[in-house]
Amino acid sequence: MGLEEVKQKKKRKKRGRFVFRVSIIGALLGAVVFTLVSNIQADNTIYRAGDQAPDFKLQQINESNERESVQLSDLEGKGVMLNFWGTWCKPCEREMPYMQELYGKYKDKGIEIVAVSLDSTELVVDRFVDRHNLTFPVPHDTTEEVRDLYKVGPLPSTFFINPEGEIVEYVEGALTLESLEGHLQNILPEA
Amino acid sequence: MKGKKCECGHLNPEGATLCEACGKPLEESQQTDASGKKQLLNMRYDGSARRSQTYNKSIIDKVWNFFSSVKVGVWLIVLTIIASAIGSIFPQEMYIPADAPNRDPAVFYEDRYGIIGLIYFQLGLHNLYSSWWYILLIALIGVSLVIASIDRVVPLYKALKMQKAKRHESFISRQRLFSETEHVSEADLEKIKGHLRKKRYRLREENGHILAEKNRFSRWGPYVNHIGLIIILLAAILRFSDVLYMDEYVWVREGETVVLPGTDREYYIENHDFILETYDEDDERFSEAIAQEGTIPRNFQTNVTIYRDSANAVAGAEAELTPITEDQIRLNEPLKFEDYTLYQSGYQQNEFTSMSFKVHETDDPEEEALANFTIDLTSPDGVYELDNGFRVELGEYYPDYYLDDNGIPASRTDYPRNPAFVLFVYPPGSDTAEVSFLGIGKNIEPTGENEYNVGITDFEMRDASGLTVRVDHTLPFFGAGAAIFMIGVIQGMYWHHRRIWIHPKGNGVLLGAHTNKNWYGVEKDIEQAIDGTSINMVKDQQEKDE
């Protein structure tokens, strides 16, 4: 074996080793990145900020509101505060007066407040609505389908949806008057 | 690449500690120690060069070498163990108690455990198995497993494939089991060869040098085992796919029909009946166990109907349900339909569905009913018109009554577990109502002047069944991985790689032997192989040294 030949062989071997190691490490890196990315996506389940809000249709049960049913897609062009709540949930109850106060202020500026009730009995909701003099639409999600669709965890949970139907913000937990007004400003349609 | 040339003429790659061809020690570490005492050879990977030791130039090589290190692998495992241990100090997110004042993890941990709880939450320890750094640790263990295995199995395979029957004298004499015999006849050599063959050794000869070897495949056990582990890790990655894996939980009350979560609102389930059976307390066979444990359940069962929604309209809109299957789900006997499996996973008993009342005169000792009415707790009415002109208005309804911090009646949950009512009773022809507050074990009239009293006469209850909804096509992969893992363990554990070298020297022979485990076994083999010959029995040189 000549010296040249040996050198050639060594070079080939070195190249082969490099290609082998790069492909193994590449495949492993790919698997690790895929796992981490999938995990992050699994955490932010389905519809959150930046996503198009999925459509739903529910019976509206607040007698002080003229709507019979609420379908989200009908509200396009309006900023929508989509609130999930229950009568038994104390933080939900605390934010209701703020919602009512701001509903009066922003209703004519193109904002709709949709407070989806997750209660199972309508009577309890009626009494609650009367007690708090609520006038915004209260759709009744008796089968919890919409809750499942939006993957709502703790109550209250609120989605702020812009006039184009895109979720701008998602808030878990109760809102204060100031923070609520700030969120509403963000989804205000342009006059 | 600098190589090392052995005196037999073979050029060995850098990092080899024993000559690939003749087995002569190449490295200082394999030579005699300072006191000049003869040392045993380190036979790990047969003295071959792990490839990571061979090259260390480019960044790729450096990454490769890092993960090839067993030390790195062990540290990754130790870190994972420590993280897992810390993760068990406080409850994981899914085990935050249902009665916690605020179940939002962002609030709960700090609220209950203070600053340490906050750190615990922020590090993602509350949801350990999904926190990115924990997954990264596991993934790096996987990377280490692949690279470390490749880096060892390839040179070991080559070394064992390349090995020659003829070895250097010092290779034989420095094996742990060794003997030297001055005079050995041809007949004795034939005899020992025959014995070894009978013991299923495979023999190779080279100018009178003999290598007898058996069960080399047991050396691949650890690597087969690692392949199994890697398949298990890949199966875990497959679980991220919604098509291959889905795991949801649903509560269905008796008589209710609800959407099955995770099915894109395609399927609905109706709970006809939840059944909890217990072992018969009068049966003598069980009397001892029951005396010790109390009531023992023997069956948890839900009778259900599954429906498909053919309308498939937007969420919340009316569904058009067609029944597709009717079945019973029992613990460990899930219901399977399409890709879905439903498991009996939980139950809640004794939710109220309806309560019946009677109205009677307060001062009537007989409490004779003047009117009766029943409130359906799943959809109570606002007003009840009764016999004899009575009218009852349901002022307030608390499904799960308690007094809140301000002493005001409220409901703890949405579920009728402890129903309570504020009733306005309008006596016949009257426009003024008498107020009554009724609940389980409570019958309060605020004024104490009510002419009529309302009493609970009857109630109905129902159970709720908790079902796990699961799609799992990844199980076969886990099964395959686990099986391969086990095969690898068995392969490495129950067979032992044994090699016996016979090296002619003058009129006699040197005899050396090596095994990866069970030295007693190979000694026994030799003992039986030399039976009836003049060859000396080997001595355990390691024992001698101690």
Summarize the structure.
The complex is a heterodimer of chains A (191) and B (546). Chain A has five helices and six strands.
Task: Give an account of the 3D structure.
The complex is a heterodimer of chains A (191) and B (546). Chain A has 191 residues and is α+β, with helices and mostly antiparallel strands. Chain A has two domains: 1-43; 57-186, Glutaredoxin, CATH 3.40.30. Chain A contains five helices and six strands. Chain A has helices spanning 3-43, 90-106, 122-132, 145-149, 177-186, and strands spanning 57-59, 69-71, 79-85, 111-117, 157-161, 167-172. In chain A, helix 2 (90-106) crosses helix 5. The longest helix of chain A has 41 residues, at 3-43. The mean pLDDT of chain A is 87. Chain B has helices at 51-54, 59-68, 70-87, 105-122, 132-162, 169-173, 186-198, 221-238, 284-293, 475-494, 519-529, 541-545, and strands spanning 4-5, 11-12, 177-181, 202-206, 209-214, 245-253, 257-259, 267-278, 297-309, 321-330, 335-337, 340-361, 371-376, 383-385, 391-398, 401-403, 409-411, 420-426, 434-439, 442-444, 452-472, 498-505, 508-515, 539-540. In chain B, helix 3 (70-87) packs antiparallel against helix 5. Chain B is of the alpha+beta class. Chain B folds into five domains: 1-36, no CATH class; 50-160; 169-215 and 496-545, TATA-Binding Protein, CATH 3.30.310; 245-345 and 466-471, no CATH class; 350-464, no CATH class. Chain B is elongated, with a radius of gyration of 39 Å. A six-stranded antiparallel β-sheet of chain B has the order 4-5-22-23-3-24. In chain B, strands 6, 11, 12, 13 and 21 form a five-stranded antiparallel β-sheet that branches. A five-stranded antiparallel β-sheet of chain B has the order 14-15-18-19-20, with no helix packed on it. At the A-B interface, helix 1, helix 3 and helix 4 of A face helix 2, helix 5, strand 7 and strand 15 of B.
